[in-house]
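Exercise 7b. Backbone tokens:
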């Protein structure tokens, strides 16, 4: 790609881009699957012709299906879903006719690692959780529940498997739920962060979560247990804020490389006054 005059992105090393006459052409690759996009149609055609000359390639036309992700377009915007992926997963585990669940996990759950619980097949558990982790790329509604069950991959118990089954029952309720990317007339960047405090009953660590929006569209999200024990809710929330800030800075760097830098300051929202105060006042290091 560099021989073709493309630059490798520093924000995402699988992304290559080339600007020409204020237009941009993008190529992103995963192993041997490639997406080419951009607003320079002449360069896109030239790139596909050069790739055909150097490699054995197949042009599948307009993007409709990529790595299990279905892409649909309309006048309103673009939809991303994994409906077929969900139905295949439910069919594999025999839950196509199961009773749907309203939520992916029980509120105020108390998942923990106990030696007194019944063991389950670890390979089967890891396979199911691994597929749910991939599914969470288009289903932010299951991100928290999947992050919980993924913490017990080393020694899963019956209670952990019950939560995995509940997530699958929740997916049965709406297998085609999708992400929507629409035009809102701006590319403002916003983020939201939150965290619980000492929720894990085993090690008393907190779980943080954040999401980011570009142009009013949800683009990234994460839910993960913190690496250290926070001694206050303010500390747990502040650690979540720092992760959200890192994600915003990464998005800013990527958008600058694409040629669409944020025009106004990026905003990060948090619901903890103490964490906000610490963030706004760098003097409060203690």
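Sequence design result:
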């Amino acid at each position: 790609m560099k021989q073709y005059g493309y630059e490798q992105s520093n924000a995402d090393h699988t992304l290559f881009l080339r600007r020409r006459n204020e237009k941009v052409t993008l190529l992103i690759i995963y192993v041997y699957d490639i997406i080419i996009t951009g607003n320079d149609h002449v360069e896109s055609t030239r790139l596909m012709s050069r790739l055909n000359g150097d490699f054995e390639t197949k042009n599948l036309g307009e993007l409709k299906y990529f790595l299990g992700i279905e892409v649909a377009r309309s006048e309103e915007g673009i939809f991303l879903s994994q409906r077929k992926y969900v139905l295949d997963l439910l069919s594999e585990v025999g839950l196509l006719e199961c009773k749907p669940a309203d939520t992916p996990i029980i509120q105020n759950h108390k998942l923990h690692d106990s030696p007194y619980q019944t063991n389950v097949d670890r390979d089967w558990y890891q396979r199911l959780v691994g597929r749910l982790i991939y599914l969470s790329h288009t289903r932010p509604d299951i991100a928290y529940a999947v992050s919980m069950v993924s913490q017990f991959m080393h020694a899963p118990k019956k209670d952990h498997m019950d939560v995995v089954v509940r997530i699958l029952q929740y997916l049965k309720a709406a297998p085609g739920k999708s992400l929507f990317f629409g035009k809102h007339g701006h590319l403002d960047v916003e983020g939201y962060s939150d965290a619980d405090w000492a929720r894990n009953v085993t090690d008393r660590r907190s779980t943080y979560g954040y999401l980011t929006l570009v142009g009013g569209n949800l683009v990234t999200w994460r839910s993960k247990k913190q690496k250290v024990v926070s001694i206050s809710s303010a500390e747990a929330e502040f650690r979540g804020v720092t992760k959200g800030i890192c994600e915003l800075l990464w998005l800013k760097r990527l958008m600058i490389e694409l040629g669409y830098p944020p025009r106004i300051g990026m905003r990060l929202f948090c619901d903890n006054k103490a964490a906000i105060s610490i963030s706004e006042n760098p003097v409060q290091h203690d």
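Instructor comment: The CA atoms of residues 17 and 26 lie 5 Å apart. The chain has a mean pLDDT of 91.
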